Amino acid sequence: MEGRVVERAFAKLNLTLDVLHRRPDGYHEVEMVMQSVSLRDDVDITLRPGGGIRVVSSDPALPADLGNLAGKAAEAFLNHVRRREQGVEIHIAKRIPDRAGLAGGSSDAAAVIRGLDRLLGTELTEEELSAVALSVGSDVPFCLFGGTALARGRGETLRPLPPMPDCGILIVKPGFSVSTPALFDALDGCRVRSRPDTRGALDALGAGDLRALAGRLSNVFEQALPEAERRTVVDIKLALLSAGALGACMTGTGSAVFGVFPSLEAARRADLSRFGAVFAVSPTKRT
Ligand code: C5P
Predict the structure, then answer these.
(1) Residue 273, class by beta-carbon neighbours within 10 Å (0-12 exposed, 13-18 middle, 19+ buried)?
(2) What does DSSP say about strands 148-152 and 28-48: parallel, antiparallel, or unpaired?
(3) Catalytic residue (one of 41, 117, 139, 173)
(4) Could you tell me if 133 and 113 are in contact, meaning their C-beta atoms sit under 8 angstroms apart?
(5) Distance between CA atoms of 84 and 81, rounded to whole angstroms?
(6) Using one digit for the tens of pLDDT, what is the confidence trace for 253-269?
(7) Given its phi and psi angles, is residue 39 left (phi above 0), alpha (psi -120 to 50 degrees) or beta?
(8) Which of 3, 198, 217, 234 is deepest in the core (most CB within 10 A)?
């Protein structure tokens, strides 16, 4: 079969992130309010005769082929639909920074799963798509459809939520990166002093109250960061707040930090480039 499709792969933010406990399978039970945002990669997928999966990224630092989550997603999808003989070529125009807590790799993987389902006409159910996605990574099921959702389990048990009220968001990516498994381990050994008010965040979303939501942005991983990195995150949050953000928080296991502003213009006006790469974005709705 031949054919080509370009899928948009949006970044995600964790508006709240709580880690409840380690499970017997080694993963952690989480509870998080997830939000997709307009910062995106473009994932160009072409079916080729003759088999093989090839991944090319505009970011040469990222691993190619099956070392890349997009390649793993193509392999998992073709295995699931028993089309291992199908060749696939994937070109990723990267904009989402890597190792930032923005699910860049997971979102590319989700885009590959959506794109292959469309190109091959396999029409998998949401449950099947989600199972293939989870076999690639914990954040991939959310990235299939994005929007605003409450995630539980490993991150794959999703409940759609009322959309985040209109606002602007400034994402700041400092120079350092943190290993996700290492930060989960650090959190296991650390006394968590404060936890997100997830219930309050859900109520704020239900009421469409941006200020109340922004006041509840919270991520337990900030407490498990090494001291120097924790201080950088605090500095960025304080700078976001003094630039007019209604609330600020780290996303995922970092290192990106974001602030929620009343409008996209207000987010664009905040100058935090001294801390690293900055991206002014808007929330996106479920697709
Ligand atoms: O699922 P994913 O491959 O993205 O997870 C990367 C690592 O993060 C896992 O190997 C595990 O150490 C940790 N993790 C976890 N609990 C989760 C999600 C991820 O412990 N719910």
Answers:
(1) exposed
(2) antiparallel
(3) 139
(4) yes
(5) 8
(6) 999 999 999 999 999 99
(7) beta
(8) 217
What length is written for the chain? 287
Phi, psi of 38 (to 5 degrees): -75, -10
Residue 13 has pLDDT above 80, yes or no: yes
- pLDDT at position 63 is 77
Peptide bond into 282 cis (omega under 30): no
Indicate if 41 belongs to the active site: no
Tokens of 26: 């080694």
How much distance in Å is there from the Cα of 181 to the middle of ligand 1? 6
CA of 29 to the centre of ligand 1 (A): 10
Burial of 248 (0-12, 13-18, 19+ CB in 10 A): buried
Return the H-helix or E-strand segment holding 134: helix 126-136
Q: Which are the contacts of 250, defined by CB distance < 8 A and separation ≥ 6?
A: 101, 219, 221, 222, 233, 256, 257
The reply to whether ligand 1 has any atom less than 6 angstroms from the CB of 91 is: no
For this structure, is 139 an active site residue?
yes
Sort strands 148-152 and 3-22 into parallel, antiparallel or unpaired: unpaired
Q: Which element (helix H / strand E) includes 39?
A: strand 28-48
Cβ contacts of residue 227 below 8 Å, gap of 6+? Answer: none
Q: For ligand 1, pick from 107, 184, 187, 219 the residue to mutate: most ligand atoms within 8 Å of CB.
A: 184
- pTM of this structure: 0.97
What would the pLDDT profile of 192-228 be if each residue is shown by its tens digit?
Answer: 999 999 999 999 999 999 999 999 999 999 999 999 9
